[in-house]
Design brief:
The protein is built from 27 helices and 5 strands. It is mostly helical. The longest helix is centred in the N-terminal third of the chain and has 32 residues.
Length: 624
Amino acid sequence: MAAQPLTATTERPAPGARRSRARARRPAELLARWALPVALGLWLLALRHVPLRSMGDLGLLQVLPALYWVAVLLLTLGFAAVLREPRGGWRLPLGYVLGLIAMIHATPSLLYPELRYAWAWKHIAVLQAMLSHNGTVPNAQELDIYNQWPGFFQLNALLLRVTGLSSALGYAVWAPVIVNVLLVGPLVLLYQSVTRDRRLVWGAVFIFYASSWVGQDYFSPQAFGFLLYTTLIAVLVRRLQQVRAPAPARAGAGAGAGAGAGAGAGSGGARSLRAPIGGVDGWRPRRLVVLLVLEAAIVTSHQLTPLMLISALVFLSFPRRNRRTVLPLLGGALAMSLIWYATVARPYVTTNLASFLKALTAPDSNAVAGLAALGPASPGQVLLSWVDRGMSATLFALALIGFVRRPWLRRTGLPLLALAPLPLLAANSYGGEMLFRAYLFALPATAFLAAALVLQPGARPRLRMATTIGVLCCLLSGLFFGYYGKEDMNYFSTGEVAAGQFLADHAPPGSVIISATADLPGLDQHYDQRQRVVFTQGSLSFQKEVATNPSAALARADVGYSGPAYLILTRAQAAESDLTGVLPAGTVARLQDTADHSPQLLRPIYRNADAVVYQYLSPSAGGQ
């Protein structure tokens, strides 16, 4: 919205012109008001009959009915109509954003009978172990990393003790919805710090959710850390805009300056920016303490998020005018991280220091580590991988063009936040996931830069509305491919959960749990008392043997362990193998057939339609 000069007068339109405009706006107003409730009703109707068993290599995309996609399209059209109004309250756009969150993130929670995603089950097991031991879990093996970053789990343990709940499963199912709803506040605060245009604010929020396909919003330390990171950055950017000295007003500022007025750009309609307030380097002591507590929670909960925060603070400190505000937080984050690495997290750091240093010498391979070879994957997974890459590239291209075409954005600090994850992308591959994490941490900034390009007011409003709808639909298409495309392996049936619970109840301490992949619920229950063998985590020669000679692989799997050994095979393990190619398609079925025809080696002790549990009978497993 163009900023109006303080002394400007506006000619009153003729009565006929006003009536013509009112008639033209009436359909858009009706669409903006009624599209949301109608879309939500259609969405709930669409979820009544979804054949989850028919999912294939495109996951939920293959089984959600047409009515679901009509609801999403109607919601998008209604939100675009809301953006046509330069003035208005916050309730209607907030309702559309919450509706989008519900359609994306509440859909699996409503459809699935159990908690989705194996890593969420792993974190439930870690939380239960910390509750049982009242803190550090002994004999944690490879899961000892959670002992060294326990903040998220200790907070949940405190929540369970206060509420009297016996498990976090009840609310972990809704973690994606809860996390994304809580993110709305920091995002709005961040965007309102740099512009007064409500269309840009809410349009950027909508684009954020339409582009957040990475899926790091489940019950996890990363989701918790990202929420705290976004909150802290939003408060900091708000403060940076408050302490900036306003530029002299200029009458007749253009549209670009008007959009940037909230960022302190000099224009006739610019708001007054407050001068620095008292305290330590521009911060009130109480507010600084609160932000340092947030930093401490980040440092103690996740190994990557503190580094992303430090990189963002370093980038924000590049402009000299920001340093008095940023440096106290940067110093606090650096000091707490170094102390934590030297004390609690020292075992992890010392064990992996050599690999960290080696990774620094290979920035090119680190940057592309997430772009894994697609040869072994199913055709559907190859397609969704390219769709995700194309959507991500589109968003960054829009952000880059917005940076070039909207000069006022360069005064907001958001371009610096968009670039801040790049040093970490070059420094380490993070197990092949650094590219996706860098995209996630840059997303709050890139979403706004893209919104400033697409939603900037100007001439030809119908063309701009059509462009807005096209961009939102394009981004949402990529989101659904990335977020729903792997659901055949992320979804767990009641039978799979029952098999995992049976194994947890009947396998005594000292047992060995063997599986084809790690994609099953309950694999890590009582992980401090049992050992786990996962075929896909073994040597390449052993993985090849699993695929080519399953009988020999099963016979060797329990060798070297003294306790009872159990083999569990499930539907989700077969789905993971078929989708990702981590094992050749059909390998899990061949393993099960081999186990069923090896009575001297294995005997089934539990079976249902989706899972089977065997007990090893060989002497190396300690007998029956």
